[in-house]
Amino acid sequence: MLKKVTSFSDGSGKLSRKAQAALSFELKKKFRLKDVLQIVDIPESSYHYHIKQMKEENPDQNLEECIQSIFEDHDGNYGYRRIHLELKNRNLKVNHKKVQRIMKKLGLKGNKFTRKSRKYSSYKGTIGTVAKNLINRRFHTNVCQQKITTAITEFKCSDGKLYFNPFMDMFNSEILSYGISSHPTLDLVIEPLEDTLEIVKNSKYRTTIRSDQGWHYQHNKWVKKLKENKVFQSMSRTGNCLDNSPMENFLD
Q: What is this structure's pTM?
């Protein structure tokens, strides 16, 4: 308790009303608020006033509390990707990078991944359209959004598997969009494709999207969307990871 009080002190030995409110807010997680306010010696009205002020100073207060709650509800097993997915399920739209920043700020780190990741193979032979290898390891480009690569990666978690499908701009390795799901469904690639197409629709040069020959990328819905948006399709050769070095390096 003494250490907790000291951490809120300005060094003078006294606590400001704001510091008293912050300390009370921390202590109420373990003790009744009524008892805490009496011990800290702050009127309840002052406590609620300063807590409200602090929340207004931090526009992400509610989001931080929600992330903290999800993390604790799952015993610290969730990393930022799974928490982002859970927020999405709760109709809370927030960028995955922001979730990652907040978790870092709060000191939340998922701890139950049994392995980092492994390449996921969705290849089922020729079941649709197999495109030519247009990029053919010519990964370098001086043009933004001219060459984009995508691939599905599987993460093994303590309570199942998670599938991640990012879309990377080869110009600067920026992740333009991504899909994440507990199952490798067609939507895992179609939804982030639609987001990517929205981003590149005003590009000066025609875009080429590279993928492997997995069934998702041979699917008529995928091929049709690329054609409708005048985007070139490029596929790497089967069993050749060097054809997708930029994405392989990112996922490693």
A: 0.51
145: left (phi over 0), alpha (psi -120 to 50) or beta: left
168 and 221 share a domain?
A: yes
* Boundary (domain end) residue, out of 106, 139, 169: 106
Reference 214, options 233, 191, 231; nearest CA is: 233
Question: What is d(CA 208, CA 145) in angstroms, rounded to the nearest whole number?
Answer: 8
pLDDT tens, 138-192? 888 899 999 999 988 888 776 677 888 999 998 988 999 999 888 889 999 999 9
- Residue 111 is assigned to a structural domain of this protein: no
Count how many domains the chain has. 3
Instruction: List the one residue out of 248, 200, 212, 251 whose CA is nearest residue 133.
Output: 212
**Structural domain range at position 93:** 61-106
Note whether 130 and 222 are within 8 A (CB).
no
Exposed / middle / buried, residue 141 (Cβ in 10 Å: 0-12, 13-18, 19+): middle
Tokens 């998702």 correspond to: 216
Task: State whether 161 and 237 are in the same domain.
Answer: yes
Q: How far apart are CA 114 and CA 134, in angstroms?
A: 37
